[in-house]
Amino acid sequence: MIPSTMQDFPLSVAAILRHGARVYGGSECVTWTGGGPPRRATFAEIARNAERLASALARLGVRRGDRVATFCWNNQEHLEAYFAVPAMGAVLHTLNIRLFPEQLSHIINHADDQVVIVDDNLVPLLARVVNELPAVEAFIVVGDGDASPLEANGAPVLRYHDLLAAEEPGYAWPDMDERSAASMCYTSGTTGDPKGVVYSHRSTFLHAMAVQSASMVGITEADRVLTIVPMFHVNAWGLPYGAFLSGATLHMPGPFMQPEHLTKFIAQEKSTLASAVPTIWNGILAYGEQHEIDLSSLRSGTSGGAAAPRVLLERFEERYGLRIIQGWGMTETSPLGGMAFPPPGVEPGTSEDMDWRLKSGRVAAGVEMRIVDDSGAELPWDGEAVGEIEVRGPWITGSYHRDPAPQKFDDGWLRTGDIGTIDDRGFFQITDRAKDVIKSGGEWISSVELENHLMAHPAVAEAAVIGIPDPRWDERPLACVVLRPDTTATSDELAAFLAGKVARWQVPEYWTFMDEIPKTTVGKFDKKPLRAHHKDATLKIEHIER
Ligand code: ADP
Hints:
Structural class: alpha/beta
CATH superfamily of the largest domain: ANL, N-terminal domain
Number of helices: 15
Bound molecules: adenosine-5'-diphosphate
Radius of gyration: 24 Å
Helix content: 25-40%
């Protein structure tokens, strides 16, 4: 073997920042303010502010490896922290602002966060746990709203803009070991307790390269990317870092996550791309039924985090000519694991095109994927065999923070807990989560498939299907349905609607109607409370003949 002659250049967040600031210094971060003009900062300004923030944090005693948390919306200051904290060698911990208080204090303490940067309008939410954070040494408040509830902790409560104003730009970013921690994020805990994933500089850099590439999200300097997916949830799908590598302008909605604001933002600032979970896309669609909206600047949208129902993609295409592409990922996978761009030769707008776009993704370059059966044996890539999806690669976690969790790994592969198929070209389809799949008479029923069919019924606004115990079949599906306002549909009608679309034995005989499907902190259907309500017998269930 001969040694390579290539430089051993570390991949780092500082390198991403330097590139964006130098090469695309004029690209912008635009933060929506709800009423007045949006706040604008160029990448060059963001970089200077990141240098000031790093100096301020260092002055507060933040050292390499220390954890600095953010409790913020998607905005300019959050972006500055995204760069300053990892680039100075500390570790950015993005906190999910929608966690229950017990979960929030648990993860702040579990991660050992020393400093928390918080938006002033989120102070009341953080204040609920302020007495339970013994390790926090300072709070830094963005904005000049009331921050007095944080004083109960005893740690100093400082103002972000005062701290930055007292510093000069020009922080010398240290050389970093690319394998050291850059940031961390806890899983949102849809099916279990939150677990901490710690990203390295290397994984962050490589993931950002993948995000901006054309076979993934594909962004360039010509794009203006509306980042609806929260920066506290799986790194906003890597878009902030991807934007600094590609020069794409970032559109940040701040707290204005309502469809009214998102659509105004798009129309006014001419966003070219928007990324959101299906529930947000659904909200935009519903809003557009009642109001005039202009999405014509969008050249594409991305959806991920949960399966996008066919009807959602179809309606966006029919009404707005907007092509939404699905992606798949998890907190553990940084998150991008695949995007579902149809293969060449498929005519956009055809039903074949839609079939491809309903795949969960095509395996991302850099990620290796396989499916295995219950005994751990690998299954073929034939688009038919159904098993658990396992992944490995440079931006896939290999353990959890202070919790090795060996049961989540299989010989170096991450067990995703997602069940699905892969075809011979690497297109994969998630049919369910292992914990949600309904096992009926020795066969599996995909809850996701039933939900998607149901949500295509004109009277159905939302549908979630869970397995309930059944003495004869082991489990049977219970369909939980939310009807659209001013519409009616009976369980018999909905069952008949499903009968032509799935095998007869898969059609649920148990039905319940409700006002809203409970959602997780990141807007996914939350089946845990539905199961609990079923167990407590608090659901009014209709049983129909099969
Ligand atoms: P949580 O596991 O708590 O929901 P994550 O946000 O990390 O937290 O969610 C990852 C999970 O989201 C995946 O394991 C998968 O079940 C689901 N998911 C993500 N993207 C898709 C998609 N395009 N289609 C179906 N499910 C998806």
